[in-house]
Design brief:
This protein is mainly α. The protein has three helices and no strands. Helix 1 (2-18) packs parallel to helix 3 and helix 2 packs across helix 3 (41-56). The longest helix has 17 residues, at 2-18. The relative contact order is 0.20.
């Protein structure tokens, strides 16, 4: 879970700016990081940002 905590820490300011709370962010990161799609770290981070934008309604 260490990698997930690092990503959450880095994405938290972005999520807060969108009005998404930490619990929702953790859920999104967990889903993206554990899904079966093969992605690089950068692709996973981009997917998290995309899902955050969708969750925020942007």
């Amino acid at each position: 879970m260490g990698e997930i905590d690092i990503v959450v820490g880095r994405m938290l300011p972005f999520a807060a700016g969108l009005g998404v709370d930490e619990i929702a962010l953790r859920l999104i990161v967990l889903v993206v990081w554990t899904d079966s799609v093969v992605r690089t770290g950068e692709e996973k981070a981009a997917e998290v940002r995309r899902r955050l934008m969708r969750a925020a309604g942007v």
